[in-house]
Structures are given as structure tokens and as C-alpha cells.
Amino acid sequence: MTIIIADTTCGLPRKLLEERRVPLIPQVVTFGEESYHDDRDLDTATFLSKLKASPVLPKTAAPEPCLYFPFFERAGKRGES
């Protein structure tokens, strides 16, 4: 069996992700010196508020490997790829 793991920038509807049981890994968003995990501790309203108030534009980064590893490990134990 093949599984799909996505990050929060995948653009797929939340309902589809839930129906297909696709794990969603948060993108990292940084405003100045503060980093947030998208959709976990930074919702859309908070992001827009910070965007309006911040003198610098936010930066993004790929999710840390430590966030993906548990999903890969579980899939491997179940014989999925």
C-alpha cells in the first residue's frame, strides 16, 4: 500500500485530506525572530494580523525532518511505502 503525507502548503481541501486520512505536516513560518508551525500555532487570522503589523515580510521553510519521521516510521512498520 502507498500512503501520501503532505505539508500545509499542499492546497488540498481539508475535507479530502480527512477523508483520505492524509497526515498534514506544518510548514514553518518566521516573522523576524519568531517561528510558528502553520496551521498548528498560526491560523490564517493570526498570520494576516502579524503580516499587517510586521515591518518585515515573513519567511517560510520546509517542515523539519523530525516532524516527518514518525509518519515514515509508522508506515514502514506497517509495510507501506
Q: Give the biggest sheet.
A: 3 strands, antiparallel
State the strand order across the main sheet. Answer: 4-3-5
The value of Rg in angstroms is: 15 Å
Share of residues in strands = 15-25%
Percent helix: 25-40%
Provide the CATH top-level class: Alpha Beta
Low-confidence stretches: none
Total number of β-strand segments? 5
Order of helices and strands: EHEEEHEH
Mean pLDDT figure:
89
Shape: elongated
CATH architecture heading: 3-Layer(aba) Sandwich
Overall tally of domains: 1
Question: Based on helices, strands and strand pairing, what is the structural class?
Answer: alpha+beta
- CATH topology, which one? Rossmann fold
For the record, give the distance between the C-alpha atoms at the N and C termini, rounded to a whole number.
6 Å
Multimeric state of these chains? single chain
Count the helices. How many? 3
Structural notes for this entry:
- By secondary structure, the chain is of the alpha+beta class.
- The chain has one domain (6-77): Rossmann fold, CATH 3.40.50.
- It contains three helices and five strands; from the N terminus they run E-H-E-E-E-H-E-H.
- It has helices spanning 14-19, 44-53, 65-77, and strands at residues 6-7, 24-25, 28-31, 34-37, 59-61.
- Strands 4-3-5 form a three-stranded antiparallel β-sheet, with no helix packed on it.
- A hairpin with a 2-residue loop joins strand 3 (28-31) and strand 4 (34-37).
- The protein is elongated.
- The termini are close together.
- The model has no long low-confidence stretch (mean pLDDT 89).
